[in-house]
TrEMBL record:
The lineage of its organism: Eukaryota, Metazoa, Ecdysozoa, Arthropoda, Hexapoda. It comes from the Eukaryota. This is Acyl-coenzyme A oxidase. One of its GO terms (biological process) is lipid homeostasis. Residues 306-467 form the Acyl-CoA oxidase C-alpha1 domain. GO terms for cellular component: peroxisome. SUPFAM superfamilies: Acyl-CoA dehydrogenase C-terminal domain-like (SSF47203), Acyl-CoA dehydrogenase NM domain-like (SSF56645). Pfam families: ACOX, ACOX_C_alpha1, Acyl-CoA_dh_M. Residues 155-265 form the Acyl-CoA oxidase/dehydrogenase middle domain. It is found in: Peroxisome.
């Protein structure tokens, strides 16, 4: 496709005050966007945004709706999306990777418009059907079809009031009764109630429920999945034996009806057990049906990693939106100047402001690329597992590595987005606190991403545990290559900052960043293992030894591993042949800003581990960071344009692409409901002394 034709997929930006900075960029911002995102996926998003813009149900609301109104609006939006058929029918006959990537792009577009809508569909359609495919069999096909076609509203019920991350200790039970060939679902007390179940509060009629399976002989067969009818789908009234309700108002995402449910000896058919890996005979005998391990492993990967990848995709977009708002505002907002009575300058010119917001702008670029690369690996692995059952051992290694990668990257991406929103809010001053700035809604709707689909601090431990196993193994099992550096650990740990410079490695180079990270991870691995071994030798149990190694060791290791992967992914993308020459300097600055910013976070460790002595290393990293921020200034608005969705999607009075900042703020001030009207309660607030004179 010719360059101009590729660019036409992306709408032009309007003329306006932001052009003063747009004109300073030495590259085409549309070309920059097509480095960050695949052109076909960009086209999908813009097509969806164009269709939804004309739909009244998706128009941005100008005032906060009540909680019940938000739930109703999101539920109606879900139904309207089904009617619109955003994915062409032929998509569903395409190969797995193409089909899922297409659907993921639709989800990203929807999330940018309405996060509650996106999450409701992701839970009730995506995660539910993925889990059903992973754990169910042909006998569950009818439920799968109905959920996929949105004939029923579904949910996934795992978390209980007193157990979240430690799902193995959930206490909801499913006891088999051979006399009636039914499972009896029971909640022993309120602490065992399923809770925080999306779609369950008001709308779901079927739950994929996780409960401990007991056979009639009293034997515990562990946590299993069951299809459990909750409500009559025609009336949405609960069935007898089911106590179900809504948990109430949340900090954000109130369009999602999160619910709780308790069961009182509630009976379901034997066939409702999801029996891919184990089944119960009519007589009540539990039988393992574990076959075709490669396909099952791929299905398990799909079930558990798809949701986390979706969260990372959404969070990288949220991060982008926050950075776009902050950068555009900084280019337009003028305060102070060299001369007291002279012209004021844009706050984007100030080094402090650049240091505050440019690393998040760079992070948005780097993490968008790395999440895309991670998703590619994931989709290819699942597709391969579906196509063949050979190579089980290699597939096991790949699945383990992807799980570690996802478990470390989900915290990195969601935490970075969280921090970017807050910094952007503050960087926009008082105007950033306006609801119309959209930074408040971004923050509140993003916040649960740090704890759902795996609490970030718990997930990170799964990644560090995998890395520690590779360190201890006689052979490193890293087919994806994210931990292959461990094979060179002796040479890596002999190095330091001075030896890097002596070998000719320049500070302002990808090689410098990469080698610093490899030393950092090797040192943290070595120290983590040594600390745990010492604790074990002193008689401390493994559980305690591992837990006491998280702070300053394993937790930092997990984050460093995710940052390293992100930087290597971005570096690889920039090295591809389709990247135009005029883009390479600005992409290099973006890489260095994010790389140096991340290294600066680990500065203490570099000195504690004697990688660096004196001030030279810190001066080099921080000096490079500040210098690159200064050099990025003239490109920042163009990069923001490359990250930005259409204005109606960004929905920020401070971040509009026309750059008419104060005209847009004036419109919000003057037209918000009741702005120029006397309050209906004015009589109640007149001081009593004044009232007596009236």
């Amino acid at each position: 496709m010719p360059v101009e034709q590729e660019r036409t997929v992306i709408p032009d930006m309007p003329r306006g005050p932001l052009c003063a900075y747009r004109s300073k960029a030495q590259f085409n911002w549309k070309d920059f966007r097509l480095v960050l995102e695949d052109k076909e996926l960009v086209k999908i998003k813009y097509d969806i945004w164009r269709r939804l813009e004309s739909e009244p149900l998706f128009s941005p609301v100008t005032a906060t709706l009540s909680v019940d109104q938000q739930k109703e609006r999101a539920a109606r939006q879900v139904n309207r999306i089904a009617d619109l058929e955003l994915a062409p029918p032929e998509i569903y006959s395409k190969p797995y990777k193409y089909r899922v990537r297409y659907l993921m792009s639709i989800n990203e577009a929807l999330h940018a418009v309405c996060p509650s809508l996106s999450v409701k569909i992701a839970l009730g359609v995506g995660l539910f059907t993925n889990s059903l495919l992973a754990m169910g069999t042909e006998r569950h096909q009818d439920t799968y079809n109905k959920a996929w076609n949105r004939e029923i509203i579904t949910c996934l019920a795992i978390t209980e009031v007193s157990h979240g991350s430690n799902t193995k200790r959930c206490r909801t039970t499913a006891t088999y009764d051979p006399a009636t060939q039914e499972f009896v679902i029971h909640t022993p007390d309120f602490e065992a109630a399923k809770c925080w179940v999306g779609n369950l509060g008001k709308t779901a009629s079927v739950a994929l429920l996780f409960a401990i399976l007991y056979t009639a002989d009293g034997q515990n067969h562990g946590l299993q999945g069951f299809l459990v009818p909750i409500r009559d789908p025609k009336t949405l009234l609960p069935y007898p034996g089911v106590t179900v309700g809504d948990i109430g108002e949340k900090i954000g995402l109130n369009g999602i009806d999160n619910g709780f449910v308790m069961f009182n000896n509630y009976r379901i058919p034997r066939e409702n057990l999801l029996n891919r890996t184990g089944d119960v005979t009519p007589e009540g005998v539990y039988e393992s049906t574990f076959s075709e391990p490669g396909k099952i492993l791929g299905a398990v990967l799909e079930s558990f990693s798809a949701g986390r990848l979706g969260i990372m995709q959404e969070s990288s977009n949220t991060l982008s939106h926050a950075a776009v708002i902050a950068v555009r505002y900084a280019a337009l907002r003028k305060q102070f100047g060299r001369d007291r009575n002279g012209p004021e300058q844009s706050i984007i010119e100030y080094q402090l402001h650049q240091w505050r917001i440019f690393p998040y702008l760079a992070a948005a670029c780097v993490l968008k690329v790395s999440v895309f690369a991670m998703t590619e690996i994931y989709l290819e692995t699942v597709q391969k597992s579906q196509a063949e059952s050979n190579g089980f051992e290699l597939l096991t290694q790949i699945v383990s590595e992807i799980h570690a990668l996802v478990s470390s990257s989900k915290p990195l991406v969601t935490w970075t987005a969280r921090d970017a929103i807050q910094e952007s809010r503050e960087a926009c001053g008082g105007h950033g606190y306006l609801r119309a700035a959209n930074l408040g809604d971004l923050r509140n709707n993003h916040d649960p991403s740090c704890t759902y689909e795996g609490d970030n601090n718990v997930l990170g431990q799964q990644a560090s545990n995998w890395l520690i196993r590779q360190w201890k193994n006689a052979k490193v099992e890293s087919p994806v290559g994210t931990a292959s550096f461990i094979t060179r650990r002796d040479a890596i740990l002999r190095g330091d900052f001075e030896s890097l410079l002596r070998s000719g490695v320049r500070v302002e180079s990808p090689e410098f960043v990469s080698q610093c990270y490899e030393w950092l991870m090797c040192w943290l691995l070595k120290q983590s293992v040594a600390q745990m071994d010492a604790a074990s030798s002193a008689g401390v149990d493994t559980f305690t030894a591992r837990n006491n190694c998280q702070v300053y060791r394993a937790r930092d290791l997990s984050r460093a591993y995710a940052e390293y992967y992100a930087l290597e992914s971005f570096r690889a993308r920039c090295a591809r042949g389709d990247v135009k020459e005029d883009l390479k300097p600005v992409l290099f600055r973006v890489y260095l800003i994010y790389g140096m910013w991340c290294l600066d976070r680990h500065m203490t460790t570099f000195y504690v581990g004697s990688f660096a002595k004196g001030s030279q290393f810190a001066d080099a990293v921080r000096g490079t960071l500040l210098r690159m921020c200064g050099e990025l200034k003239d490109s920042a608005v163009a990069i923001a344009d490359a990250l930005a969705p259409p204005d109606w999607v960004l929905n920020s009075v401070l971040g509009k692409s026309d750059g008419r900042l104060y005209e847009n703020i004036q419109s919000v001030f003057m037209t918000n409901p009741g702005a120029l009207e006397r309050a209906s309660w004015w009589k109640d607030v007149i001081p009593s002394k004044l009232k007596s004179k009236l």
